[in-house]
Structure formats: structure tokens, C-alpha cells
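Troubleshooting log. The previous structure file for this entry was overwritten by mistake, so regenerating from the original sequence record. Sequence copied from the archived sheet and checked twice against the printout by T.R.
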Amino acid sequence: MARKPWLMPTVDALLAFAAFGIAYFVRYELQLIAPVLEFNRAPFEPYLPYTIVYIIWLYLNYRGSGLYKNIRGRSWLDESYTILNGVTNATVVLLAISFAFQPLVFSRLMILYVAAITIVLLSLARVVRRTIQARLRARGIGVQRVLVVGGGEIGRSVLRTMVARRAQGFLPIGYLGENEEDGSVDLGRLKGLGSMDNLASVLREHHVDHVVITLAWTHHDQILKMIRICQQRGVEVSVVPEVFQLNLKQVQVENLDGIPCCASTGMCRSKAATARSSAPWTLILIGAMSPLLLLMFGLVALAIRLEDNGKVFYKQRRVGENGREFDMIKFRSMIPDADKLRADLIKTHELDPRHPKIKDDPRVTKVGRVIRKLSIDELPNLINVFTGQMSLVGPRPPTPDEVSLYEAWHLQRLQVKPGMTGLWQISGRSEVPFDEMCLMDIYYIENWSVGLDAQILFMTIPRVLLRSGAY
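Regenerated output below.
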């Protein structure tokens, strides 16, 4: 997808002009807030010079503030804040001109309408652009193929951010380690491509667009060499400094009489994520939905009993926050004694025992097949949420035997209460390999916010209805 630097400035100019037209109609035709006396009525033409000044001022302001720069990862709220600042400045300029020249035709109330309408239109334009970009990137259009150099904690941090935020347009194809051993292990679908000495051949064979180097500065000679290799092949290259082993949200940039310093805020993101679990809105949401939930509970329970007269609920030992075990409750979707067949099925289907998912599991009943597709079998997890063992959003709780197979970095996903839904569920559910799931879970822990929880819950609904990756 070719970058068109003129597109958004043109769209903004047209929308700003439209804002003047809408504001004129609201002020002189609808006459909201204050009526327009007959001798104060005016045509639109006298406002045209103000419209031109307004559009030019907005363009200069937004160009200077970087709104038109292609910055991946910039949030919609950041863009909206920049839009608000630009509109405020342009509005002040128009009001100052009116005070200086005292025109016969000028409605200050209309200019306030213009400001409000411009903010709405330009912010909505960013929503539309983001939606179009996300759809195109989902089809592989406008996506950058990224290679990460460095398989340590910083490298994994970069990988998990890209995996969790695919809408930003980065497609990680794999990573290079400091040596062959470090770069020989695949992380889900992310390939270990050997040591950093393989950079030139990997760039050529895998059509890499962007390289992110995450090596320690003790490798500065190799870093400079790799930058030159990338530049010779026309590949973009970024270097993540060692200090960012601390999450960016834990780093505060300070100025010591002209000397830049990076100070840690000392706040552990996992503690912030843990605090989310006791948020009262969780219980409020469950309470508000209780009539519908009770109806669904009754219908599913009846269907399960009618099919084979077996137990309605199924309890399974799971590992929660900080390794504490609990009994997770689900609707029974399998035949009795299904757990006894689990080990044989994992071996037969050659599954990853840390996250075994069988597409056509012979143990699943007819009712179970339906409720699993719609994730209704997990509704009793709300009991675990109500008792404080789980949260609505968070990493999916593993079984003790799965945890026994974890590597040290996998255990980071157990730092918070597990959830009914999470980043990996809205990114493919059962189709996401185990290592990728862990990368997403750790990203969630490090970047938790109420807004992120709300986004995940909102995106879970269409994933469930479309039955994406569920079996």
C-alpha cells in the first residue's frame, strides 16, 4: 500500500470546509442556542476568507506537530489530542482576526460550531483510516516483514508486541540469536533462523522489509556491521537500546541540566495488572447480565442432561495467579472420563502438550460441539470470576501438568489472575501456537489498562459469534 503524503491533508482540508458549511446551516437555518434576527442574517460568502485562513492554519499546525507523519503505534487518542490542539489554535486565530478587523458579518457562535464539528469530523476520519488500514493489513497489504536480531528478553519483548498488535502492520517472520544455539528454537510460528551471522542470507531469502536489532551495546561492532548490511540492501533498520529492557511505561525521561536521563518509575506492571481483577465493574457487569446468564445456564444444563443424563458441570484443576491452583468450572462438553484419554490423544495427534488443542476431538459430545464453538461451555467460569479466582480478561489458566513443561520465561504469564478471554483468544484462539500465546499474555501483563481490557472484551464478541478458531 503506497504511502500518499497528500491524502490526509487533503481530507482534512475538505472536512474543515465541510465543517464551515455545516456550522453555517446550524447557526443561520436551525438557529440552535440563539436565534438570528433578520437584520443579522448573512450569506456564506463573507466567511470564505476565514475558511481559507482556518484550513491553512490547521495544515501548518498539524504538519509541525507531526500529525501527518506515518508513525506506527500512535494511538487514536494521541491523534485526537493533536487535532483538538490544532482546532483550538485555529479558532483563537479567527476570533483574534474578527476582533482586529471588526467585520460587519461574523458570528462568533458559528466559529465555535466550526471548532466542535471539525474535531468530530477529523477524529472520525482517523477511525475510518484505521479501519481501512486494519482490513488491508489483515489481507497482507501494507504489511512490513520484520526480522528481529536478538533472542533475549528484549527481543522477545519486541516480538510479543508485534504479535499482539498485528493491526500496526508488522509481520514478524522470525529472529536471529547471538549464536546458532540461541537462534535454533522456533517460537510458535516465529522461526529461529540461526545466528546473527546469517543476516545477509536471511534478508535475501525471506524478503525482509525491516530489521529490529535488540542486542546489548557490548555488540556495538556487530550492530554497526548489520546496519550497513541493511542499508546496502535497502532494508529499514531500528535499534532498541539496552535500557528498554525496562518497559517504556516504566521509564521516565528526565533532564539533568541538559543531560538526558532515563529513570525507572519503580512501578511493576504486573502489580498494576493484578489490581484490575478486583475492579468493581467486573461484578457490576456480571450482575447486569445475570437474567440472560441464568436463562442460558438453564437451557444448556437441560440440553446436556437430555443428551446422556450425565453431569452438567465439569471441574478441572488449573493454575492461577502466582502458581496457586484452583478448580475451574465449565459446562461438560465431553464424554465421561474424557481425561483418561487425553494423554493418548496428545501422542496420537502429535500435539504440543503445553497447549493441546484437538480440532476434531472424538471425546466431544453433540451438545458439547455446539457450546464449544460458541464458547458457551466457558460461561460457568463466571463463578470463578465472582469468587476472585479468575478475571474476565487475562491469560488462559493452564493445567498443572502443562505448567510442569514450561520454560522459565513462560512462567511470566502466571503473574496475574487468569481470564475468560484475552489477547490470544481474539487473535486466533485455538489456532495460536503456545509460544505465541505466551508472548501475547506477557504483552498484556506489561501493558495492562482498563482501555485494553475493554478493547479485548469488545473484540471477543464478534470472534465468538463468527466462531473464529474455536474447536
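The CA atoms of residues 9 and 59 lie 7 Å apart. Archived copy saved in two places this time.
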